[in-house]
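User: Hello, can you help with two protein structures?

Assistant: Certainly.
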Amino acid sequence: MAGVITVAVVDDDRMLLDGMRAWLGGVPELRLVATAATVGELLAAGSDAPPPDVVLLDLVLRDGSAPADNIRSLLATGSRVLVISTVPDRTRIIESVRAGADGYLTKDNDLPTLVAAVKDIATGQGTHSPELAFACAHDDSPARPRLSPRERQILLDYASGMTLKSAARRAGITVHTAKDYLDRVKTKYRQAGRPTFTKIDLARRVREDSLDAG
């Protein structure tokens, strides 16, 4: 089973769970290891087992649990989270990603799309679905700073692993100017209530806001 991605599904729709078992049972690269109606049920049942690589999490569960709390609870175990929902709710998509979800898909997507998303998430790449891209492109909440094209370019290059010197060279500016742009980015995120200090923080903001998707 080396190289197989373990998957769990949290959803209170029994028909969907049955469908997921049938779907994922035919994908050799994935192995469904658990299903549950709530996050608490999943965590209790798997307390003695390694956490699944990826959890498919229904956005709204009938137990009334908060989506952001569910996402954080799953992340704390070491799993990555792909949120699935019946509708592309822009506000909830953004809230889910900011809570740490690695992706968001509506339930009308086909099996190849789901499998591709799970694979991307398992390898730490995250997944950029049309729903997520649309939500981020139209996100005008105060928590999403407005970055200038040059600020965005320096942020993306630096957060992707470039040195500041390399990012500056690519942009055709001095290192001092590039640092000024990066400092402005950090200030804007701090003013938006999302403190950002390190390169890891910057990379997280890029993923949370899907800045590399559009």
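That covers the first. Now for the second protein you mentioned:
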Amino acid sequence: MKNAIIMLSAALILLVAPLVSAENSTEIEGYVIHHNAITTDILTPEIARHYGIIRSRNRAMLNVSVMRKKQDALDEAVPAEVKAYTTNLYGQQRKLVLNMVEEGSAIYYIGDFLVRNGDRLNFHIDVKPEGERNYSPATFTQEFYTE
């Protein structure tokens, strides 16, 4: 029962996160890369504890998933090599450590990092779906308000 609650909460976070922070996606040949970032204070204590994430207005979480496009069915989550870093307005880069999470048929990559009020970060994500030879890039920019 506890695992079911955690899985349901995680699914809700993945559904709600796009509403809280604009959900972004990047289409590449045969795949869609979904990516978004949220401050971790919106996570429930149970979800944060489950994933080892500190809840705070001054911490954010990047969430990436890779979906194989299917013509006559729902897209399918696939494992991938995922690398990510941020660049701020001063050109400073910060590598993000992402952990793969598998829950049922869902596969996503999450990592948390510090943010300050007004931080405007450019996210650079490189994805190589399992079985593919090359990485494909995805980028987005987000500003964080922590006060």
